[in-house]
Amino acid sequence: MQEREIRIEGMSCQHCVMTVRESLQKVPGITLKVVRVGAVVFSADDPGAALDRVRAAIIEAGYTPTN
Asked: CA-CA distance, 65 to 6, in Å (whole number)?
């Protein structure tokens, strides 16, 4: 499995971290490694294919992925 980091704008507290974590736990095919204020690290067999789903989940949670 390969790891990928996505930076996130709009996160400022642990509540934000919890919201993003809960949203990303619903994304199939990924394993969350780290969710912190401003970023998330995940792994997937094909992180390129999972990237769009992860970005969509971040947006759905109310935040903005920046990479």
From this structure: 6
- Considering its fold, how many domains does the chain have in total? 1
Q: Find the CATH number of the domain harbouring 52.
A: 3.30.70.100
- Specify the pTM: 0.91
Contact present, 55 and 61 (Cβ < 8 Å): no
pLDDT one-digit tens code per residue, 17-36: 999 999 999 999 999 999 99
Q: Which residue has the tokens 């999972």?
A: 50
User: To 5 degrees, how large is the angle CA 17–CA 23–CA 24?
Assistant: 85
What proportions of the chain, in percent to the nearest 5, are helix, strand and coil? 35, 35, 30
